[in-house]
Design a protein that fits this description.
Blueprint (H helix, E strand, L loop, with lengths): L7 E2 L22 H15 L3 E7 L2 E7 L1 E4 L3 E4 L3 E4 L3 E5 L1
Parallel strand pairs: 1-3
Antiparallel strand pairs: 2-3, 2-7, 4-5, 5-6
Length: 93
């Protein structure tokens, strides 16, 4: 039985200081790619912030921000902050 960890809120400006070096397998939302694509459109067209729940090397985090771009391996937030897609659990729109 697994216990669901509550994500620690974090400011977008602190994400660049986080570590993503460990190889972790995390359970991702089955529609994650669709969530990312929808959040990117909302961010660019309407400046809508979304909740991003992700795992760094130290635990589960959540940031509420705008997604500006999405590639195959990373998403880019305002200010040039990057989060690896393989560490994202879900996007809350």
């Amino acid at each position: 039985m697994s216990t669901e960890q509550k994500p620690e809120p974090i400011e977008k400006e602190l994400i660049s200081s986080l570590s993503f070096n460990e190889h972790l397998e995390i359970e991702q939302h089955p529609e994650l790619r669709g969530q990312i694509d929808k959040a990117t459109v909302l961010g660019n067209a309407h400046r809508v912030k979304v909740g991003i729940v992700f795992q760094d090397d130290n635990g589960l985090k959540r940031v509420d921000t705008t997604i500006w771009a999405a590639g195959t391996k990373f998403i880019c937030l305002k200010g040039g902050v990057w989060i690896p897609i393989n560490r994202i659990k879900e996007i809350i729109i």
